[in-house]
Amino acid sequence: MVSCVNSDDFELPKSEIPKDFLEENLTSISAVKGNYNFSTNEIYTFQDSGILMEGYVISNDEGGNFYKKLVLQDRPANPTAGIQILIDDASLFNTYDFGRKVYVKLDGLSLWFNNGVLQLGKQNRGDVIAIPQALIDQNLIRTTETANIEPINIDIEDFNENYKNLYIRLNNVQFNRNLVRDDHRFSFSSDIIDRFDGERQLESCISGATTNLSTSTFSNFSSLLLPQFSGSIEGVLTRNFYNDYYILVINTPEALNFSETDRCDPIFLNCGKNTTPGLEVLFEESFETITTLRMLETRGWSNLNVSGGSEIFRPGTLGGNRHLRISAYNVQENPLETWLITPSISLDNSEDEVLSFDIRASFDNATILRVYITNAFTGNPLTTEWTLVDAEIPMGPSNQAGINFKRSNIDVSCLEGNLQVAFRYLGSGTEKTTTYDVDNVRVTGN
Q: Can you tell me the distance from the alpha carbon of 299 to that of 291, in angstroms, rounded to the nearest whole number?
């Protein structure tokens, strides 16, 4: 083969657009989105308007994390509106690179609300599908301008509708501790629990709020391991496939700048490193004979909803194994805070005590279970001084029931008196609904 180009560093053809034509026929992303009627949810089709919409590309499909779609925002800095355009092309980065200013001819395109965001494409009966390759040049005009996109600096707790489909930066964040342990460090999206997308919980060191980083299992960086420390991350804010909660989607791993050498984890109980169970069982509950809430209560357990609702831990069974289960799924409580607290366990006549328990996660969309201990329970979990333990909270599949329990062994030998263990669930019926099963709670000593 012979080429007349000496290198692969070449320019794409430039688009020449009459300036007066644009000034007379130009509209904004915000104005385009305003055509959609959320009360009827009817697809809106642009016809015979001669109108063009301008925007700047903030997505990049080179890494495989965006597929057959462009995400545009209205300005390179301080944007106010963003939108997705469905395009039947898996290599858009070659023409519509990050920061590229483009014009969209709206005539013949349709607007609908799908997966929690507004999208433009071609109407096909009751759906809106991607613009066919043969029609891309008729609907999209690539300009010669490439802008420097300045991300919006916000905190996770500030997420709202105004930031959807915009390019943002989160500062002082880290991945959940249970995702980056030395004995099992998760990848972006290639672990056994991942099917189409991998969701990894990010935590704000500023507010403690959490969100999920979503990465396609088809991306070319899906098998990279998550960074263990803290830093900043840039990406497009959007909604998950079922429009349950906000997620962040990055273009490439270079969007992460986790250069800090430490983390902002809370202070955990630190009695030592002894995790070998003792010979004497001081307390044990397998829940095998617990079939009602009344039976749990008669054994001295406290099972309390402190957020004003009624949902609590409940006896469950899977594969013949009994346990206690909690979930915010299909529960109209926001927030849902429930505490499961053991009976009092005496440590006065033993030493080298070890606490152990099993936890399983299912339909996982956030890590929302924590384990605490105290030797001064007041009878009210909100007035008790608790100490957080470094429990291994598993990450389960996002779309099905979990299979395996994860066991934690915690050295509690530095405590004295009467110990009580608490499992605190803090979910939300609207966004954070992970199901947890708790089993085989035990304290041993010598």
A: 12
